[in-house]
Amino acid sequence: MANVAKTVSWSGREQTEDEGEITPLLNGTSNAGDQPHRPCLSPNFFPIGRLRTVDLGEHNQEQETELTTTFTKEIPHNENLLSLKYESLDYDNSENQLFMEEERRINHATFRTVEVTRWVICGMIGIFTGLIACFIDIMVENLAGLKYQVIKDNIDRFTERGGLSFSLLLWVALNSAFVMVGSLLVAYIEPVAAGSGIPQIKCFLNGVKIPHVVRLKTLVIKVFGVILSVSGGLAVGKEGPMIHSGAVVAAGISQGRSTSLKRDFKIFEYFRRDTEKRDFVSAGAAAGVSAAFGAPVGGVLFSLEEGASFWNQLLTWRIFFASMISTFTLNFFLSIYNQKPGDLSNPGLINFGRFDTDENSYKYFELPIFILMGAIGGILGALFNALNHCLTTFRIRYIHRRFLQVIEAMLVTGVTATVAFVMIYYSTDCQPLREEAIDYPLQLFCADGQYNAMASAFFTTPEKSVRRLFHDPPGSFNPQTLGLFTLVYFFLACWTYGLTVSAGVFIPSLLLGAAWGRLVGILLTVVPNGVSWADPGKYALMGAAAQLGGIVRMTLSLTVIMVEATGNVTYGFPIMLVLITAKIVGDYFVEGLYDLHIKLQSVPFLGWEAPVTSHSLTAREVMSVPVVYLRRREKVGIIVDVLSETSSNHNGFPVVENTVDGSQPSRLCGLILRSQLIVLLKHKVFVERENLSLIYRQLKLKDFRDAYPRFPPIQSIHVSQDERECQMDLSEFMNPTPYTVPQEASLPRVFKLFRALGLRHLVVVDSHNRVAGLVTRKDLARYRIGKNGLEELDLAQT
Amino acid sequence: MANVAKTVSWSGREQTEDEGEITPLLNGTSNAGDQPHRPCLSPNFFPIGRLRTVDLGEHNQEQETELTTTFTKEIPHNENLLSLKYESLDYDNSENQLFMEEERRINHATFRTVEVTRWVICGMIGIFTGLIACFIDIMVENLAGLKYQVIKDNIDRFTERGGLSFSLLLWVALNSAFVMVGSLLVAYIEPVAAGSGIPQIKCFLNGVKIPHVVRLKTLVIKVFGVILSVSGGLAVGKEGPMIHSGAVVAAGISQGRSTSLKRDFKIFEYFRRDTEKRDFVSAGAAAGVSAAFGAPVGGVLFSLEEGASFWNQLLTWRIFFASMISTFTLNFFLSIYNQKPGDLSNPGLINFGRFDTDENSYKYFELPIFILMGAIGGILGALFNALNHCLTTFRIRYIHRRFLQVIEAMLVTGVTATVAFVMIYYSTDCQPLREEAIDYPLQLFCADGQYNAMASAFFTTPEKSVRRLFHDPPGSFNPQTLGLFTLVYFFLACWTYGLTVSAGVFIPSLLLGAAWGRLVGILLTVVPNGVSWADPGKYALMGAAAQLGGIVRMTLSLTVIMVEATGNVTYGFPIMLVLITAKIVGDYFVEGLYDLHIKLQSVPFLGWEAPVTSHSLTAREVMSVPVVYLRRREKVGIIVDVLSETSSNHNGFPVVENTVDGSQPSRLCGLILRSQLIVLLKHKVFVERENLSLIYRQLKLKDFRDAYPRFPPIQSIHVSQDERECQMDLSEFMNPTPYTVPQEASLPRVFKLFRALGLRHLVVVDSHNRVAGLVTRKDLARYRIGKNGLEELDLAQT
């Protein structure tokens, strides 16, 4: 450790380097003051032991690159990789002089205005989210209604005179057409709109920036994609995507502008930073849940469970407000649309319908049955997740061309329709038509006045099937029908999740669970003869909870969502039991679906706590070294070179004191972000040697905010050779008080600080307050509990 | 600032000090290495500018002092004071070598055992809390039943032949007897058991250690106190105290021992630290809410809203489990007691009864009415709080003797009974007896087959009155009865809260609100003739929510509690609206009741965020200086003197590096707690000059845990003159990586770190990592937004 790096110039032309003998200069105290410190060291010259030694944490420029349209091609299929392409959000305000000056100007009255504005924004988030939900609902109802009517007429015509294969063709063709359009939109215009978006929002709230995820374009594609895929008869729901939609609405409204539309309304400029944006996105996600399930409290809990690390009462209350407004808006407009204004019976996209509690209340001895159902749900959920995991890996490897994705989506659509048709065709489960109108009763080969029961599960939107399974009187479904339906639908739903269409997995899970739950209920009435308490609807509800819990593994929030969607709290306790069992059983086998997908995309997702056995690691072992740092007063040329160097792609740089003679070790005095440097370069905030001041007074916080969040790349900024010789004084723009940890701090300690405060960069210092390294999200996310104890993931550029 | 402190010896005998010229030595960089640093400086010798400069943050020994029995005498009545007598809990583990060695020994399997143990403990917390609730309920029912039966018989007898004043006397005497015993218990045995305990639990979860608050003795007094005060007919409820009871149960069980009973079960030793204890106390409080209201989700939210700063999914799920078990246990045993096993209709101590939703669902145009009711609730709540605030100030000043407190409680009891009697006596509101039996219908002067309606509100436990107001059919109460009842009960309840009895304010608030809410409902049916939608029960519910919200100002958790207690979610939306309005309106006038009481006790309570206008303050201005610090290898005599010095009463001491020649400034290398030093001294972990090692190997983490939480005072430890000359090596016991902030960090930044991580001591360092000061809870809590912007509270020893 006595080797000393020679002077390395950043111009990239005149490197004179004693290769192979380079020491990580800043590592520890062993290099105390015996060499001239240079601000930047080319990482290329360091021995690459592990990948981590050249890992510089956060990758790439802060502007969103346009790589993501080819997104699916590049997903590493090795689960032990951690991708470097994801950037972090920064929930720690850069408290530089500009920021502090603004904050100090804020008196109590101004603050009140800001606070009221936040409430107004939350109200708007609620209203728009509710309106979007309303739009989706009405569109789906009309499109799907039209489709089913056409097919039903066709089937009715051909049932008598034979030739039902034409009907099948028509069905397949119509569905494929819908899905094709939906899939084309997603695959070619905005791939990030695929799926439910819940994993993406989870990541966002966790602090990972997924490119494009909160853009207006994504929202538009998502909304139309959902309408088309649900209308196209896939085994999907429109509820999950509402959460994503709400989040986009929130991100859009709170920033007061749309970069896609190139409109800046010049409002809400105060909120143009990650901290505020995250809070609003939480509110948006909650509003989405609320509109999807009519569950405002569940929405709040979802946001907190998935995102919040720090619980703030005022924030929670605002989130709740947004949720409330969202469900109310949906309810209000849907009741008008349904021509029952003031009815208020449509709080969410899915409504489980009213369970008549007096009759159906449960008994003690049913609790073990419910627990058993929870276990079944856990096992089935784990199976679902494991299968989908294999499928997704396959997709990542082989189906990464866009047209293949579209074709796969159409294939699944065709198979779904065909399977449904065949099952309806061969079903002999005829039920008498009752008063409550079934929307599209298919008579087929049943006697007059009867309808095909299988069709009532397959030949309608999944939401309606769920409600029918919950509420149709005992005897509406044959056990055989339910069993067959469960089996087939399980594989269909599993195949469907992960297709390149916008769609959610909530409703298929509920439907699946409701089917086998109802089956359990029926079996209970049949096997011990004449049991009165085993209402099939109740068991359908428990099955639905078990299956959904087994797949997504949400906990408190899902309980509340189910209770709110059910409309009464009587079943709260059994639902909790079911969910807790499903989670424990499911977690024994495999993770939740969303977590699996997050892992498959190698996202640096931070859990709630550091891995339990990680106490033996310290910041020294975890941190990225060597770290590129800058001096308080730095040459412009060096800054440009640091930013241009692609291998040194941290987004934050510690700033150290300039020393008079260069012989003293340099102490940490701040932290500056790549984005801030870019704005500084763009505005030419340079200081000539003779002319030390004045110029940079003109730069305002507004300049930084205007550039947020898509900062220009360094390549777009021209710096002349003369300018390169200028100096730049970073004092005013750097964060002078970054959080630091000593090198000896244990990983759990570092993790706790990082996670609780939502940091992006955490500077590791030695006992003399000199920069020793930098901890970023990836350095922490790469430790994971595996089968053999603590595992270390590799980092990959893909 | 060029003055230099001369050498100060801590023996206390040979101080040679240049008085009046002492500089806060460690303040900033101005003292760089130009004087010999001494570890400890007597604060007596520093100029006392503001009180803060000698404030040494946390006061007194860590063991709980026995001062608190005289608690009520000493409460300062100046609201601009912050008491120094409260200590902080430390939610940051001291990661010293012993701790790290233990943690490193924990492999995945051991961790799983620990995790399972946590679940088992939560289950036990739920069971015991449920059992306590069950016990309270049954006792109250029997005692109150007996009392009401005796009085009813007496009244019935005397109604005919005159002489009802005997009945009044009997009533007053019986009630006073109950309350006297309850009040004596509280006043003379455990004053901290007074009231609902919710403010105390709020403080505990916030990180403030209120003496005696989670002791077994407190629990016993609380339980019997509640039974007696409710049976004694005061305007109180038994729900609030359940929260406190649950918290005590949790603290007791999780520690696996009772210091009061001197029993150590030698289990759960791993959990003997503040971090773990806090988590279990959260679960206990949630279990208490759950048992009180049958609201498991509401309980979880209560705990989170009041306590958690860091949301952890696993923890939340455990809290939920405890809540669930608690309400289930209560339900199970109460249904057996009520001889309807399996009925499951008693999830909580109060049950609002089933609202039949189909009939009573609300209409759009009722929402503005509800909002108006919320505003009324906010105003009435603010009035209630303001009156109670004056009353409490009066009590603090004048009623601080125990016998006066008992007499006041009896006086209130007598007045309550008398007022009730007079109102019943003069009431002419006779209602026909219906099928549903009223427990103790008083006929008085009504015709046969009728009963006195005023008596049905006054002559029963408040819980039953609430249910009657919610569910009795329209016409059961006269508007005059309700109006008069509201007026009288308002003042009675306000007078009652704060008496030296164990009792809660939830039920009186609900009753009050239900009364005026029902009145609003009746007026709505009367004024616009023949309105069908204005069901009085619905309006009673909204009034109850409004009034309770206006008084306690809880937000999300209260909404969920109300919804869960109501048993269906239909009224969720209007309840939210009502609560949000009540909070906004109420906050405009005065704070919530609990917050007022916390303030009146000068507790250093930390809000969610730093005051909004505090960006201009930095750590340098906020921190305590000078701070007493120790050297890594320190003389035993100095340590004893530091601990004995009452004016230097911090509970944590920064540890600095020993320097060879004493001329170099000393760098921070750790933090050691007073409690740790005391254990070290007690075990004589000394190092002779010649014999540097070996001895302290024998000290285990267990020794520290056994002493937790009541560490002996320093006075009880004898250190001989020879031992004073020994050295003590703190390296192994200090926390080597305490969190630090630079002096320039803004107050909000310091606050955020402190609050999010639940710290107790935060070391402020200069740019050379030298100790500059120490920030404790009091340094942060003393800044508050007042009428004129940022206010600074004074610190007081009382």
Automatic annotation (TrEMBL), chains A, B:
Main localisation: membrane
Localisation: Membrane
Gene3D superfamilies for this protein: CBS-domain (3.10.580.10), Clc chloride channel (1.10.3080.10)
The keyword Transferase belongs to this UniProt entry's keyword annotation: no
Compositionally biased residues, Polar residues: 1-13
Keywords, sorted A to Z: CBS domain, Chloride, Ion transport, Membrane, Repeat, Transmembrane, Transmembrane helix, Transport
Positions of the CBS domain: 734-792
Region (Disordered): 1-38
Keyword NAD tagged: no
Any one of the GO CC terms: lysosomal membrane
Signal peptide range in chain numbering: none
GO molecular function, one term: chloride channel activity
Chain ranges passing through the membrane: 119-140, 168-189, 219-237, 280-303, 315-337, 369-391, 403-428, 481-499, 505-527, 539-563, 569-590
Highest taxon, organism lineage: Eukaryota
Topological type in the membrane: Multi-pass membrane protein
PANTHER family: CHLORIDE CHANNEL PROTEIN CLC FAMILY MEMBER (PTHR11689), H(+)_CL(-) EXCHANGE TRANSPORTER 7 (PTHR11689:SF136)
Family: Belongs to the chloride channel (TC 2.A.49) family.
Protein name: Chloride channel protein
Natural source organism: Hymenochirus boettgeri (Congo dwarf clawed frog)
